[in-house]
Amino acid sequence: MRRYIQQELVQHCHDHRQMLFLSGPRQVGKTTLAKAMEASFHTSQYLNWDNQAHREVILRGPEAVAQGLDLDRLQTDLPLCAFDELHKYQHWRDFLKGFFDQYEDRVRVLVTGSAALETFKRGGDSLMGRYFPYTLHPISVAEAFDESPPELIRHEPSRIDDGQWDALWRFGGFPEPFVKASQRFYNRWRRLRTEQMFREDLRDLTRIQELGQVEMLAELLRSQVGQLTSYSSLASSVRVSVDTIRRWVATLESLFYCFTVKPWHRNIARALRKEPKYFLWDWSQVDDPGARAENLVASALLKATHWWTETGLGEFSLHFIRDKQKREVDFLVVRDQRPWFLVEVKSSGSAGLSESLGYFQQQTQAQHAFQVAMDLDFVERDCFEIHRPVIVPAKTFLAQLV
To answer: Does the CA dihedral 305-357-228-166 come out positive or negative?
Structure first.
């Protein structure tokens, strides 16, 4: 299936000289997307580090790659060179810097990867100014029925098919299990992906030796999705130091196992400031229905904030709010350092409107405050035209995102 980000990446190649760094979890569709993009270019070359023949070309240096694309020959259009799994090459940054500096006016470059690219994006500057980062997310409600995302909000939402909604809930948003919608396939896919992440990726991309204890930590994070995180409690359970827990959690984030949602405290009296919450990239692994619902919405909001930020619409971030009186709202989306909208997730639409929504909307001056109910039927209306706290169907709210 065509992914929501594909046209943006193709347009980037036409408009900008910078390389594309496409990050995302294992099996989210990065390789498939890279190969699909080749159809948009008259000439292209796909090089996967895991392929021995391709690896030999890369190891011969930038000139060998350029020769395969005939970059010394006058061409009508700029070709595309896609590097897949290149982060497994120890000197991949130096290789890319040399290749880009020599051929930037003759080729467009796409680099896909997971942990190494995401980690590098946050530190080091040897490639500064030479790339733009993008993140490929699992399929969401909005993408399930329309792969062309809105610039910001889809003001005329469409109803997701009931079968697709059920598949997203049961099997998550990773393309293969979502499309197949088979419990037996999903069981096998999940087991294999977990083994690859905690054995191959941890072994190959980190220096961590205590793989069993990291798996134990991951299981603890999975069991407390959406709850305040106590690093000291995790350290006691796994039997390592708090500093080690922090490093291992950061590693699990860099491998796209989980992501952090931090508290927002500006202009909030007696707000919590430190304890974050963690959610999984694959919400189908969350057993508790209430926590899975919260994780599904968190994933959709993270996808939207990444998309809006990475396409240049501003600086967006995802937070939650909780104060010392234990008043809480599940999520706050911040736009250019200003609260934009609040989201409280409920399994049932019969639950009364949360008093915390109105309280924190007044505190933050957020434009919108939504109580998202998972069981309500789709309503064909723009949630974002309402500025008071309101209960909305999840199928409507999520359809307006990316």
So the answer is: negative
Over 50: is that where the pLDDT of 122 sits?
A: no
Cα(188)–Cα(228) distance, integer angstroms:
31
Assign 80 to helix, strand or coil.
Answer: strand
Residue 118 reports pLDDT greater than 80: no
pLDDT at 124: 53
User: Mind listing the pLDDT tens digit for each residue in 127-161?
Assistant: 889 999 999 999 999 999 999 999 899 999 999 99
Q: Which domain holds residue 238?
A: 141-399
pLDDT at 116: 55
Band the pLDDT of 281: cuts 50, 70, 90: very high
Residue 1 inside a domain? The answer is: no
pLDDT tens readout for residues 346-395: 999 999 999 999 999 999 999 999 999 999 999 999 999 999 999 999 99
In terms of domains, do 109 and 173 share one?
A: no
126 and 172 part of one domain: no
SS3 of 232, please?
A: helix
Domain boundary among 93, 113, 135: 135
**Same domain? 114 vs 151:** no
329-334: Cβ within 8 A, 24+ apart: 329/354, 329/356, 329/357, 329/360, 329/369, 330/226, 330/294, 330/297, 330/298, 331/261, 331/297, 331/298, 331/301, 332/264, 332/360, 332/364, 332/366, 333/301, 333/304, 333/305, 334/264
Q: CA–CA separation, 254 vs 197, rounded Å? A: 11
Distance between CA atoms of residues 56 and 64, nearest Å: 9
**pLDDT at 121 > cutoff 50:** no
Which residue did the predictor score with more confidence, 286 or 271?
286
Does one domain contain both 203 and 349?
A: yes
- From 114, 135, 156, the end of a domain falls on 135
